[in-house]
Design brief:
acyltransferase activity, transferring groups other than amino-acyl groups, 7-stranded mixed sheet, N-acetyltransferase domain-containing protein, Acyl_CoA_acyltransferase, alpha+beta, binds coenzyme A
């Protein structure tokens, strides 16, 4: 049965405790197929780099990790490498809130002007999520994951995220969420 969190809260930056990495690896393993899951220590290695921006979501009721997004800030671009939300917590606006948090941080604190990512063509939930945040298709990467499993390259202009307040709606779509609550 789906877990229906009344509330979740976001954490961003400074997420380097061993306990956090344990939870992160647990959620990664539960979410991705073996081929798409990063090797042991890879997540931690990346998360500890200075140019990494990471945000996590925790359920208010039990403080358990229910989502994360991991990105790399290079030059003026933010590349989103991984996002996952616990299966029983999906469609609550958690991924959208995580993405908005890192996009605002990149635009305002790292002066990023664009964000890129790669997503499997058949990953409809993820493609729809990214489109709703302002990402557009920017080419096709053939056989990106495995032979026959292609990816879209997507890009988002971060100008609309500059100066955006914490609880402001996503700039390019009608529906909105608070950073610590469900869709309203
Ligand atoms: C993709 C994923 C992160 C979305 O997480 P989520 O918390 O359920 O997403 P949200 O509730 O914030 O949804 C935001 C928007 O994304 C789109 N979306 C999310 N899930 C969707 C689904 N199953 N079908 C269609 N659109 C979907 C919708 O536009 C949604 O807005 P709406 O609810 O107002 O319609 C989650 O499904 C997941 O962890 N998938 C497995 C891992 C993965 O594929 N990661 C991406 C590749 S690295």
């Amino acid at each position: 049965m789906a877990h229906t969190p009344k509330m979740f809260r976001l954490e961003i930056g400074n997420l380097t405790s061993p306990k956090f990495f344990e939870e992160l690896v647990g959620l990664e393993r539960a979410t991705f197929r073996k081929n798409d899951s990063w090797a042991d220590g890879e997540l931690e290695q990346m998360a500890k780099k200075r140019n990494c921006i990471i945000a996590a979501a925790r359920l208010e009721d039990n403080n358990k990790l229910c989502g994360y997004v991991l990105c790399t800030s290079t030059g003026l671009n933010l590349h989103v490498s991984k996002i996952a939300v616990r299966a029983d917590c999906r469609r609550q606006g958690i991924a959208r809130s995580l993405m908005q948090a890192v996009l605002r941080t990149a635009a305002n604190q790292r002066r990023s002007s664009s964000s890129t990512l790669h997503v499997a063509l058949d990953n409809e939930p993820a493609v729809q999520l990214y489109r709703s945040l302002g990402y557009k298709e920017d080419g096709l990467l053939e056989d990106y994951y495995t032979p026959g499993r292609h990816a879209y390259k997507m890009i988002c202009d971060l100008e609309p995220y500059k100066g955006a307040a914490e609880d402001s709606p996503p700039p390019l779509q009608a529906a909105c969420t608070t950073t610590t609550g469900r869709k309203r």
